[in-house]
């Protein structure tokens, strides 16, 4: 079951379909064979592997496929088609330079950064010459910001034409090896975002956290920031507007996660389907046993539902709406559905499903983490419930 270029939701999007076909050919034909490369470590693929894959993508004409030669972006519906193709392997988005956090950071800088900041910090990201990290989440033991960004503890203060930043961050994806940092800190005016050249002696990686996922280069780090001096012209936008700028990144970033992991789970389902048709037990193919066949049928249903939910949310964002609530709905629905899909794939394949002999086991681990990243399911549901209450109160303002 191919899940990218031939998607019904892609009708009329010939440009994106053509890009997705090239990306899918590259991922299936080139990237997949690197999935068992020894340079894929517990803390993500090594940078030399990422660089090798990016070079291959550049040669294939699929590096940074969501940003066109003139600097314009594919719209969200088009991006969905392309990112599903890239996501067919956990290494695909890295190879094509459209993985998290870089893809979301590119989007943010493209919307908010000054021309000088774009030339210095955005251009190397688009070119695949640099990786980036978004420094927002803070350690729970410090009572720092997590799903609640208002708990931000990292502080910044003016010192002449510079800002001095102090604090600690946690679960900072890709911090080790990143060349560009986007760092959130709290000033008297409110939250601020800064662009930082990495590495910097004032930023120390205390440790890499052992996590269930392993697809992101540089892993997830605990970071200490002591006396980091940042020139004023490296502030992103205005002082105190950091949370509003982060919102610019938020909805598209949630959605692009859904797009990529839909591709990964589609591939896992292909592998499980192939296994169920070839493997025989109790006198017939596994798929002919109702329990197995029904699991694959449920996968087909939930993969299609996920695809349609992504396209619905993409249309809303493309129409100019922020899509905050819609992206929350989509992130919950898709992450939960894909978790069930991945789990069924493991179950269908039995012992092989929990082994490293196929990519299915990794997809299962990665999608489990996806239910937490970019906001756990429960936080999104809580936000939606608040909106439901707000709408009800607005409709009953007179007590009727």
Structure report:
This protein has 400 residues and is α+β, with helices and mostly antiparallel strands. The protein is built from eleven helices and eleven strands. It has helices at 14-31, 47-60, 76-86, 92-95, 102-112, 115-126, 242-278, 290-318, 324-349, 360-370, 377-395, and strands at residues 40-41, 44-45, 132-135, 155-159, 162-173, 180-187, 190-197, 203-208, 220-231, 280-281, 284-285. The strands form four sheets. Strands 4-5-9-8 form a four-stranded antiparallel β-sheet, with no helix packed on it. It has a three-stranded mixed β-sheet with strand order 3-6-7, with helices on one face. A hairpin with a 2-residue loop joins strand 1 and strand 2 (44-45). Helix 1 packs across helix 2 (47-60), helix 3 (76-86) packs across helix 7 and helix 5 (102-112) packs antiparallel against helix 7 (242-278). The radius of gyration is 22 Å and the shape is globular. The chain starts with 13 loop residues before the first helix and ends in a 5-residue tail after the last helix.
Topology:
Blueprint: H1 14-31, E1 40-41, E2 44-45, H2 47-60, H3 76-86, H4 92-95, H5 102-112, H6 115-126, E3 132-135, E4 155-159, E5 162-173, E6 180-187, E7 190-197, E8 203-208, E9 220-231, H7 242-278, E10 280-281, E11 284-285, H8 290-318, H9 324-349, H10 360-370, H11 377-395
Parallel strand pairs: 3-6
Antiparallel strand pairs: 1-2, 4-5, 5-9, 6-7, 8-9, 10-11
Helix pairs in contact: 1-2, 1-3, 3-7, 5-6, 5-7, 7-8, 7-9, 7-10, 8-9, 9-10, 9-11
